[in-house]
Amino acid sequence: MIIPYTTERRADTGMTNVTLGMWLFIASEVMLFGALFSAYALLRVSATDWPPGRDLLNLTIGAVNTVVLAGVTASAWRARRSPGPQAGRWLAIGVLLALAFLGLKGWEYSSELGAGLRPATSTFLAMYFTLTGLHALHVVAGIIANVWAIAGISRVTDAMTAGRTRSLALYWVFVDIVWLIIFGLMYLL
Amino acid sequence: MRIFSTDHKVIGLQYAFTSLAFLLLGFLLILTLRLHLAWPAQPIPVLGALLGESRTSGGVLLPEFYLQLGAMHGTVMVFLAVVPLAVGAFGNYLIPLMIGAPDMAFPRLNATSYWLYLLAGLVMLASFFLPGGSAQSGWTSYPPLADFATAGQTAWLVGMFVLVLSSMLNSINLIVTVLQLRAPGMTLMRMPFFVWAMLVTSFLLLLAFPPLQAASVLQLMDRLAGTSFFLPSGLVTSGQPANVSGGGSPILWQHLFWFLGHPEVYVLILPAFGIVAEVIANITRKPLWGYRAMVGAALFMGTMSFIVWAHHMFLTGMGPALSGFFQITTMIISIPSVVIIASLVLSLSGGSIRFTTPGLFALGFLPMFGLGGLTGLPLGLAATDIPLHDTYYVIGHFHYIVAPGTMFALFAGIYYWFPKVTGRKLNDALGKLHFWGSFIGMNGIFLPMFIQGLAGMNRRLYDGGRTYQTFSGFDGSLHGQAWSAVFLGVVQLFFIVNLFWSLKKGARVSDNPWNSTTLEWATTSPPPAHNFDPALTVYRGAYEYSEPGAPRDFTAQHQP
Predict the structure, then answer these.
(1) How many angstroms from the chain centroid is the CA of residue A155?
(2) Cβ neighbours of residue B182 closer than 8 Å, sequence gap 6 or more
(3) What pLDDT digit, counting tens, does each position of B290-313 carry?
(4) Which of A25, A27, A35 lies closest to B215 in CB terms?
(5) Confidence at residue B272, expressed as pLDDT on a 0 to 100 scale
(6) How far apart are CA B266 and CA B204, in angstroms?
(7) How many C-beta atoms lie closer than 10 Å to residue A48's C-beta?
(8) Chain A interface disruption, residue of B188, B205, B227, B244, most A CBs within 10 A
(9) Contact with chain B for residue A82, Cβ under 8 A
(10) Nearest Cβ partner of A32 from B213, B229, B247?
(11) pLDDT of B471
C-alpha cells in the first residue's frame, strides 16, 4: 500500500507527511528542553550562589565541541542538497563528526568526574549533567538516524532519501540550537 | 490478524483491549481501597487473603499498600486506561476511516507507539512486585516525598518516560494524518467534530506531555544520581538532616507536573465531546447545533489549557498577582466547555430522539459532565479553593468529569462503533442494564464526596477519617459508597459478557446500521485492509441529517 503524500507535497498544506511530522517532533522537543531551561531559570534565580561555568567546566572543549556540532549540521545540509550516493557521503561525515563530539564530551565528563565534580555536588552541576546528558542522547539518536538513512539509500527511491535527508537537516539544526543554548547557559553565563 | 500489524484498525483494537484491561485493573484497585475505607478495621473478604502478608495484616490493608492503591489507581486510570482508550483506540481506529484515508500517515510509527505503551504499562504493573511495592506518593508524585519513596517510584518514572514517548509518536501520527490524508473534498470544516476534537487533543499530547518527561528525568536524577532538583536546602527526613546538596525546589515539580496536568484534563474530555457529538447528531437526526462554534471552542480551549495550570497550586503561597492571573484564565476556560455543552443540549431540541444504547450513554454524559464542570468553578477561585483543597470535594469534582463524564462517552462510542468493527451489534438489553446500573453506581459513589469534602474530610486518609470526631457521622455514606462500588463492578459484568458474547454471537447488521452520514459507514463492516475501495470523494458536511427534499433522512458525506 502507498500512503499518499509520503514523498510528494500536498497542495493545500504545501508539505510532505515526513516534513510535517518532523516539524511536529521538533515542536514537542522544544517543549521538553523548554521545560528544562525553565527549570534552570527557576533554580538559578532562587539559588544563593551560582558558580560561573567557566570556572568549573572546560571552556576549550566546550568551544571546540560547538564548532564540531556546527560541522555536523553543515554536513547534514550538504546531504540535503546532494543526490543519492553523495548524500550518503555527507551523512557519513556527519556521523564521524558527531562521534567526535561524543568522544570529546566523554573525555570532558571523565575529567570532571575525576576532579570530584558529580551531579550530586551542586545544583549547577546537576543541571549541567542533565542538560548535556539529554543532549548527548539526542546526538546518539541522530547518529543512528544518519546511519539508517545511509543504509537506506540503495534500497529506497531517491525521493524517499530526499525526504529523509530533509528531515535530518531539520533535526540536526535543532540539536545544534539546543547545544548553543546549553553552551551559553552552562559555560558562558 | 497479525500481532505485529501496522494496520491502523488492528493497532486501534490492540489499544482498545489493552486499555480496557487497564481500566478493569484501575477499577479493582479502587474497589479494594473503597472496601477498606468503609470498614477499615475488618479484613477484606477473599481479597485480603490473596494479597499476601507484605500488603495486608490479617486481611486488613497495610498503610503502605493503601497508598499504593491510591497512587496507582490514578496513574493507571488516567495514563494507561482513559487516554489510550480515547486517543489510542478511538483515534487510531476511526480517524483514517472518518477522513477517508487508507491508513495512518506513518503505519510503522503507529505500531511502535502501541508497543511502547504496552511496555510502559508492564513496567508500571511490574512495580507492584518490587520490594516496597509500587509508587505510593499519589498519582502526582510530589517531591520531596517521592524523591525518598521506595523503588516503585523509579519504575513509575521510567514507565512515565516511555509512555510520553509513545503518546508523542501517536499524536504526531494523528496530526499528520488529519492534515495530510483527508480524502478529496474533505475540507477542514467538513470534518466530523470528533476529528477536530482529536486534532486538538493530539496537539495537547504533543506539547504538554514533554514537560512531564523533563520532570521525570529530573526526579530520576534526584533518586539515582543524588541531585537536589526538588530538594530544598536544610531538608530533614525521618529526624535526620538529608545528606543532599540542596538548593532545589519542590514547587518546581508542581509547576512541571501541572503544566502537563491541566492540558491533560482536556485530553481526557475533548475526545469525549467528540464522541458525544457524533452520537447526538445521529440519535436526534439533526445537524449539530453550532458546529462552527464548537470547533472554535475546542481550539480556544486547547490554547487556553496551557495557561491555567497553577490553579492546582493556590496553596503553594503564590502572590496575589500570580494567583489573580490564573484565576482569571481559569474562569475564561470554562466558557468553551459551556459553548460545547450548550451546543450539544441545543442540538437535542426539536429532534426526534432515538434512545439507543449509545444514545443513552451520550445523553447521560451531558448532566454528569455538567455537574463535574460546575463543581469545578469554586476550585478555580483561590478563596474557595483553599478550604476545599485536598478534600473529597476535589475528588468528587474530577471524577464527575472523568468517570460518568468521559467514561460514559467512551462507552457510548464502544456501543456506537462496535457494529463497524465487527459487523455485529452489541446486545441492547444488556447495554441498557449496563447504562442504568453504571449511572446509579457512579452517582452512589461520587455524590457523597461533595458532602464529605464540604465537611472538610481530607483525601488519602487511611482510616476514612475515623480518627477525627468531625467525620464520625460519615460511616453511613462510606458504607453506601462501598456498596455502590461493588454494584458498579457487578454491572460492568453485563458489559464484559456483552462484549465477548456479541463478538461471536451478536446480531448481524448492515454496513450502516445507525443510518449515519460520516465516511466510516461508507465502507464494509469490518472495513477491508485499506479501508475504501475505490477511494471516496467528499461532497458535503458531516451532519446532513433530515435535509429538506432529500430522499432519506440522512445524506452521506460521499454522496454527490
Answers:
(1) 26
(2) B99, B100, B101, B191
(3) 999 999 999 999 999 999 999 999
(4) A35
(5) 98
(6) 8
(7) 7
(8) B227
(9) no
(10) B213
(11) 87
Percent of chain A with pLDDT over 70: 99
Which residues of B are less than 8 Å from A6 in CB distance? 105
Q: C-alpha cell of B232?
A: 530544598
List, as one string, the DSSP characters of A112-147.
Answer: HHHTT--TTT-HHHHHHHHHHHHHHHHHHHHHHHHH
Q: What angle do CA B288, B289, B290 make, to 5 degrees?
A: 110
> What's the pLDDT band for A1 if we cut at 50, 70, 90?
low
CB pairs under 8 A between A and B: 132
Q: What is the pLDDT of residues B313-327, one digit of tens each?
A: 999 988 899 999 999
Q: What is the pTM of this model?
A: 0.96
pLDDT of the residue at B533: 86
Cell of B476: 453511613
Contact at CB, A31 and B207, closer than 8 angstroms:
yes
Residues of B with CB under 8 A from a CB of A: 101-103, 105-107, 168, 171-173, 175-176, 179-181, 206-211, 213-215, 217-218, 221, 225-229, 233, 244-249, 252, 255-256, 259, 529-530
Q: Name every chain B residue with its beta carbon within 8 A of the beta carbon of A39.
A: 214, 218, 229, 252, 256
Among chain A residues, the shortest Cα distance to B531 is held by A1
A45 touching chain B per CB within 8 A: no
**Rg of the Cα atoms in chain A:** 19
Which residue type, as a one-letter code, is found at position B292? R
Indicate if the pLDDT at residue A94 is higher than 70.
Answer: yes
DSSP string of A46-70, one letter each residue:
H-S----HHHHS-HHHHHHHHHHHH
Q: Which residues contact B114 (CB under 8 A, 6 or more apart)?
A: B11, B14, B15, B18, B88, B166
- Residue B126 CB partners (closer than 8 Å, separation 6+): B155
Alpha-carbon distance B183 to nearest alpha carbon in chain A (angstroms)? 10
- Which residues in chain B show pLDDT less than 70? 1
Max Cα–Cα distance, chain A, nearest Å: 61
Calculate mean pLDDT across residues A162-188. Answer: 96
One-letter amino acid identity for B436? W
Q: Is A38 left (phi over 0), alpha (psi -120 to 50) or beta?
A: alpha
ipTM: 0.96
Q: What is the pLDDT of residue A189?
A: 87
The contacts found for B293-297 with CB under 8 angstroms, 24 or more apart, are B293/B339, B293/B343, B294/B193, B294/B196, B294/B339, B294/B340, B294/B343, B295/B189, B295/B193, B295/B196, B296/B339, B297/B335, B297/B336, B297/B337, B297/B339, B297/B340, B297/B343
Report pLDDT digits (tens) over A9-45: 999 999 999 999 999 999 999 999 999 999 999 999 9
Amino acid at B492: Q
Residue type for A115, please?
A
Here the cell at position B396 is: 468528587
